[in-house]
């Protein structure tokens, strides 16, 4: 059996002073934790590393992030819920935030 593909992702919505961002975390400690737990870190090659010092890859848009999400078995969402509503954050909230398409298979939502 293959090891599960794991990704730590973040979405920051657009504000008056910034555009929306979809990021993938690739810090050394996360990569090590994934490997020690028997997982495989995701391949973020489709999303360039715009700042090599922050260990995060920036996807160009929601479509690029969705393409990455379709390859993952486990997703850790590091986003802050709108208004700090942690109790109200749900799978439906995640789907809206990351603009996931209906009728598309996402392994992390099916396993």
Looking at how many chains there are and whether they match, the oligomeric state comes to single chain
Computed CA radius of gyration, to the nearest angstrom? 14 Å
The profile of the biggest β sheet is:
5 strands, mixed
**Structural category:** alpha/beta
Distance between the termini: 15 Å
In total, the number of strands is 5
Shape: globular
Helix and strand element order: EEHEEHEHH
* Helical content (DSSP H or I, runs of 4+): 25-40%
Q: What fraction of residues sit in β-strands?
A: 15-25%
Average pLDDT over all residues: 85
Structural commentary:
- The structure is a single chain.
- The chain has four helices and five strands, in the order ββαββαβαα.
- The protein has helices at 28-36, 62-69, 91-97, 107-110, and strands at residues 5-12, 21-25, 40-41, 56-59, 74-77.
- Strand 1 and strand 2 (21-25) form a beta hairpin.
- It is globular, with a radius of gyration of 14 Å.
- It is an alpha/beta fold.
Write the layout of secondary structure elements.
Elements: E1 5-12, E2 21-25, H1 28-36, E3 40-41, E4 56-59, H2 62-69, E5 74-77, H3 91-97, H4 107-110
Parallel strand pairs: 1-3, 1-5
Antiparallel strand pairs: 1-2, 2-4
């Amino acid at each position: 059996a293959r090891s599960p593909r794991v990704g730590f992702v973040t979405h920051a919505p657009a504000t008056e002073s910034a555009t929306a961002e979809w990021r993938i975390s690739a810090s050394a400690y996360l990569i090590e934790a994934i490997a020690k737990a028997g997982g495989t870190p995701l391949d973020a090659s489709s999303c360039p590393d715009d700042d090599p010092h922050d260990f995060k890859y920036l996807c160009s848009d929601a479509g690029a992030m969705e393409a990455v999400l379709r390859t993952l078995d486990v997703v850790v969402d590091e986003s802050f819920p709108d208004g700090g509503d942690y109790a109200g954050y749900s799978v439906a909230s995640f789907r809206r935030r990351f603009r996931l398409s209906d009728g598309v298979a996402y392994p992390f939502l099916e396993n």
